[in-house]
Amino acid sequence: MAFVLNGKTQAIPADWAGETLLFLLRDHFGLVGAKYGCGVGVCGACTVIVDGVATRSCITPAESIEGSEVRSVEGLATDGVLHPVQQAWLDLAVPQCGYCQPGQIMSAVALLNEFSSPSDADIDAAMDGNLCRCGTYGRIRAAIQRAVE
Ligand code: FES
Hints:
This protein has 149 residues and is α+β, with helices and mostly antiparallel strands. It has 2 domains: 71 residues, Roll (Ubiquitin-like (UB roll)); 64 residues, DNA polymerase, domain 1, CATH 1.10.150. A hairpin with a 2-residue loop joins strand 1 and strand 2. Helix 2 packs across helix 5. The chain starts with a strand and ends with a helix. The model has no long low-confidence stretch (mean pLDDT 97). The site of FE2/S2 (inorganic) cluster has 12 residues, from loops. GO terms for molecular function: 2 iron, 2 sulfur cluster binding; metal ion binding; oxidoreductase activity. This is (2Fe-2S)-binding protein. Keywords: 2Fe-2S, Iron, Iron-sulfur, Metal-binding, Oxidoreductase. It comes from Hoeflea prorocentri.
């Protein structure tokens, strides 16, 4: 079993079947950007992009990603240049505690892959499943709008 992780083909070890994509990323590949929050697909802290779609990795079986393309927050920057969403996050100092922010960023990137110029309603709908206990929602919306400028 293999998949593409941040542009590089990787094997899914047979003994990881039955585990989740979140822990495959964190514990096997050492990519700890995606976080464990609720573990049941409702908080968004574990969001990565699978075949272009924002995906809750905590409820995605590792074996189900065979043949898929997975992008985690660690794979967004290219040649040392931040993705426009990451740069906007930095420019507007979006994070507070930061725990949910990799998932927020990945949902924002997936949104912008679908809508090049999203309305506030598009942003609110796309980001609805990403919770932030610090309440950074206003800055998140502003950063998404900045990323498309
Ligand atoms: Fe996956 Fe909350 S940890 S949605």
